[in-house]
Design goal:
It contains 7 helices and 20 strands. It is α+β, with helices and mostly antiparallel strands. It folds into 2 domains: about 70 residues, no CATH class; about 240 residues, no CATH class. The strands form 5 sheets. Strands 1-2-3-16-15-17-13-14 form an 8-stranded antiparallel beta sheet, covered by helices on one side. A hairpin with a 4-residue loop joins strand 15 and strand 16. It is globular and about 75 Å long. This is Exopolysaccharide biosynthesis protein. One of its GO terms (molecular function) is hydrolase activity, acting on glycosyl bonds. InterPro entries: NAGPA.
């Protein structure tokens, strides 16, 4: 007689759980010490330039990380400026135009705003406590669209976006200052004439330059007064990117590039991002906070593909586009 084997749900779940834990423990060893060099280069390059570089440091020495990062950077070197565009949405009444873009290793979104004075800087309502999502910024302000903007300090790697970097200005008023009287390396602002200003600045200089909206991020600057300034690949690796630029007629350009998603978009180098702005005839442009913060919202919905596991990361500041 054949003996019946009784199915045990508890035993099955224990088996599945064991295999998940075993795979999780084995995966880092395969990635960091296995024979798959391409996988190692992409993984180390992405994590080392993310907000959790300590994950890589637990397995590799700094010398090994530096060597792999150089190889990672070289994967994205591209001096060509060709970008494939695809129209997504044009609403003459809103003054906003959106296009899909695609380069050799990335996909993303471009938003064109004809009136630069409609672009406003926004900041979390709970500085020092918690950041906010871009969709929340857009909803709270009654805006039509928005992107993430400035950097933020991240104590203990919690990533809650509560401490904006440097200086933040809204409606001509300094609403946050973590720099005191010191000169901030890179302020990205819009002055009373609607001109995009990218420059080192102190809190006292904000008034003299008539800055109405501003955030802080170290950049790098991509285009200055019509001149491309990125050398090589830009030295910031391949990652999801957010940037802001402006054309000679005043049109503001938002760019958000997806990344860290093999099969969809690896991400962009500094040169890639600069090339996108050159394609749109920007005379000034700068890299904003990227990585898992990179996000574009239109009519209340996230229209790119953020790489954060929770889709929307909590950030400290953003740029929103107000209705006419």
């Amino acid at each position: 007689m054949k003996r019946r084997v009784r199915f045990s749900g508890k035993r099955f779940m224990s088996f599945v759980g064991f295999n998940i834990v075993f795979a999780a423990l084995l995966a880092p060893l395969i990635v960091f010490y296995g024979p798959f060099q391409a996988l190692k280069v992409m993984t180390v390059g992405s994590i080392a330039l993310s907000r959790h570089p300590q994950v890589v440091r637990a397995f590799l020495s700094q010398a090994q990380i530096d060597e792999i990062t150089r190889e990672y950077d070289s994967l994205g070197v591209n001096t060509q400026s060709h970008v494939v565009r695809e129209q997504v949405a044009t609403d003459p009444n809103s003054g906003i135009e959106i296009q899909n873009i695609q380069g050799h290793s990335f996909k993303g979104k471009v938003m064109l705003i004809k009136d630069p004075k409609r672009v406003k800087a926004v900041m979390t309502n709970q500085p020092g406590v918690a950041g906010e999502r871009i969709t929340s910024f857009v909803k709270q302000t009654g805006a039509l669209a928005g992107i993430n903007a400035g950097g933020f300090n991240d104590p203990n790697g919690k990533g809650n976006g509560s401490f904006p970097e440097g200086l933040t200005v809204h409606d001509g008023k300094l609403v946050y200052n973590s720099a005191g009287k010191a000169v901030v390396h890179q302020v990205i602002g819009i002055d009373s004439q609607g001109k995009l200003i990218i420059a080192p600045m102190s809190a006292d200089e904000l008034v003299a330059k008539h800055i109405q909206e501003a955030v802080t991020f170290y950049g790098p600057t991509l285009i200055k007064n019509g001149t491309p300034v990125i050398e090589g690949d830009g030295g910031i690796g391949i990652a999801p990117r957010t940037g802001i630029g402006q054309t000679a007629d005043g049109t503001i350009i938002f760019v958000v590039i997806d990344g860290r998603e093999p099969g969809w978009s690896w991400g962009a180098t500094g040169r890639d991002l600069m090339n996108v702005f050159l394609e749109y005839h920007a005379i000034n442009a700068v890299n904003l906070d990227g990585g898992s913060s990179a996000e574009m919202v239109y009519q209340g919905k996230v229209i790119n593909r953020p790489c954060d596991i929770f889709q929307e990361r909590y950030v400290a500041t953003g740029f929103v586009v107000m209705p006419k």
